[in-house]
User: Which sequence fits this backbone?
């Protein structure tokens, strides 16, 4: 068993699509390469604050009538069961926005700031599906039916303001729906758990820059 029984939704996208050796080390030894993304937290907090308690009409006309009922909250799932057997793992993560619709269902929305308008629904689908799983099969509390998942993307397009009033970035905003696919999540979780519960770390792939750095530094003896 790994030293980390909780699976992060973001690791199902960024972690699993990258280096499996680095992923194994994270879950078995608690080792993660330092990351420098100083604006991510700030921008995410601004988006959450902008839409806290907001009606869906302020986010996208494509969304059903509803409003944001929570933002930046942690969720923990019940134990993950694969092929009828409990795995000992749970999903634990913090979603950006939770929307409640008039029909009693919910939407999980991930806020993004991106220079590109490329469709990234398939990349983020496992992460959003994991949040939905945790909400529908929670460790505690009442389950919530998730009917919708998607991305709310801001793409900066210009600078506004002046020296007296201050400057700001104007953005284009668009809604990118991400189809639900629980079966796909189950298949991915099975592969993910196989990787992190392997008795030894996988071999380092040639394309992992972090592994290349560690290897090159070791060869220098420093």
Assistant:
């Amino acid at each position: 068993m790994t030293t980390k029984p909780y699976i992060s939704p973001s690791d199902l996208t960024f972690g699993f699509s990258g280096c499996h050796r680095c992923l194994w080390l994270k879950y078995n030894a608690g080792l993660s390469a330092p990351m420098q993304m100083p604006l991510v937290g700030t921008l995410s907090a601004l988006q959450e604050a902008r839409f806290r308690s907001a009606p869906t009409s302020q986010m996208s006309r494509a969304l059903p009538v509803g409003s944001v009922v929570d933002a930046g909250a942690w969720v923990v799932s019940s134990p993950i069961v694969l092929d009828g057997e409990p795995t000992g793992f749970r999903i634990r993560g913090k979603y950006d926005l939770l929307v409640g619709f008039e029909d009693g269902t919910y939407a999980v929305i991930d806020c993004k700031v991106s220079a590109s308008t490329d469709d990234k629904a398939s990349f983020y689908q496992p992460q959003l599906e994991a949040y939905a799983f945790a909400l529908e099969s929670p460790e505690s509390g009442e389950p919530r039916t998730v009917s919708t998942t998607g991305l709310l993307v801001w793409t900066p397009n210009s600078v506004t303001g002046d020296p007296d009033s201050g400057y700001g970035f104007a953005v284009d905003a668009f809604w990118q729906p991400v189809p639900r696919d629980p079966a796909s999540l189950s298949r991915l979780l099975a592969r993910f758990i196989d990787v992190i519960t392997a008795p030894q770390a996988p071999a380092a792939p040639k394309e992992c820059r972090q592994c290349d750095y560690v290897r090159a530094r070791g060869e220098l003896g420093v």
